[in-house]
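Hi W.,

Here's what went into the run:
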Amino acid sequence: GESVGLHLPTLSVQEGDNSIINCAYSNSASDYFIWYKQESGKGPQFIIDIRSNMDKRQGQRVTVLLNKTVKHLSLQIAATQPGDSAVYFCAENIIQGAQKLVFGQGTRLTINP
Amino acid sequence: DTGVSQDPRHKITKRGQNVTFRCDPISEHNRLYWYRQTLGQGPEFLTYFQNEAQLEKSRLLSDRFSAERPKGSFSTLEIQRTEQGDSAMYLCASSAQYEAFFGQGTRLTVV
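Here's what came out:
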């Protein structure tokens, strides 16, 4: 129901520490994955993506890991900053499919000073 | 700012009224998507356009909902006879290939 959706998984980390946010995706046929960051009142912001022919991809301060065997995705944020506080969503897609991203539940990341 | 523009940012309407939202995608993007997001949930897919063709529609898109992209550029989403359950954030996204970029959304409140 509605109240279940309000209780997002949360992760609190100290400023400067590394954060790891995990996501289990649902469709074994998915071959493209994106991590989005969403701040309050704003639309999702693209962070990094990965295709299923890779198991790791690095960006600026972020790394995405993909484990297709267990359908698991993770986002690592290095040296977290106060501006990293947001809700993070993973999304999956099938490149040759219907072109609709399926979003996971989301994790709220809080950075403690 | 991703370059995807949505208007209005906020809309309050009385139950039973019709509302229309507009999305202007990034100019070179031929793919456009509409999503709906309720509090505490991830966005849910509503519909997808490639150029002016509407290629995919979710079962969430009831008969009261209609989307258009007449010239393959901007898109509109209309909700007729709004209900309180329609209250949500309506998000538009666009892409050239796989990376979808979202606008800031239109928050609809039905009273």
